[in-house]
Design goal:
Largest sheet: 5 strands, mixed
Family: Belongs to the IspF family.
Bound molecules: magnesium ion
Binding site for 4-CDP-2-C-methyl-D-erythritol 2-phosphate: 10-12, 36-37, 58-60, 134-137, 144
EC number: 4.6.1.12
Low-confidence stretches: none
Pfam families: YgbB (PF02542)
Helix content: 25-40%
Cofactor: a divalent metal cation
Oligomer: single chain
Mean pLDDT: 97
CATH superfamily: 2-C-methyl-D-erythritol 2,4-cyclodiphosphate synthase
């Protein structure tokens, strides 16, 4: 069995008048993430990790923020496309581990739902996906609730 590993990171600004979408789940909050697509930082970090594992570049290359067709895009649909790219090359996901860093709101009640949404989109089992949530202990821009960031590691396997 051959393996490849990739890591991904993303951050978006928190602003008023936008929905907060993480891992494909809309989370009730008075602020949402600003971005060209739905600004789902968790899904973006996972996509970058998948692409990175196969040296295929990053999501900005496949879904440029200057391209109007990705305006307001559901990031799960982008994730599905990245997954197809990975599978077309003969690889599949071994497991994903990820962390969301957000001061507020409390994300724990939503983690299972995110996991289910991502697993459905990737056609893998929920137990292949780890999602952790932590705060930044009030430090820096994330601690001041100016944004939310996410980190992901993905292991790809092939026979
Ligand atoms: Mg992004």
């Amino acid at each position: 069995m051959k393996i490849r590993i990739g890591n991904g990171y993303d951050i978006h600004q928190l602003v008023e008048g936008r929905p907060l979408i993480l891992g494909g789940v809309e989370i009730p909050h008075h602020l949402g993430l600003l971005g060209h697509s739905d600004a789902d930082v968790l899904t973006h970090a996972i996509m970058d990790a998948m692409l990175g594992a196969l040296s295929l570049g990053d999501i900005g290359h496949y879904f440029p923020p200057t391209d109007p067709q990705w305006a307001g895009a559901n990031s799960l649909l982008l994730l599905q496309q990245v997954n197809e790219l990975v599978r077309d090359q003969g690889w599949e996901i071994g497991n994903i581990d990820s962390t969301i860093v957000a001061e507020r709101p409390k994300l724990k009640p939503h983690l299972k739902n995110m996991c289910r949404m991502l697993a459905n989109t990737l056609a893998i089992n929920p137990d292949q996906i780890g999602i952790k949530a932590t705060t930044n202990e009030k430090l820096g821009p994330v601690g001041r609730e100016e944004g939310i960031c996410a980190l992901a590691v993905v292991l790809l396997v092939t026979q």
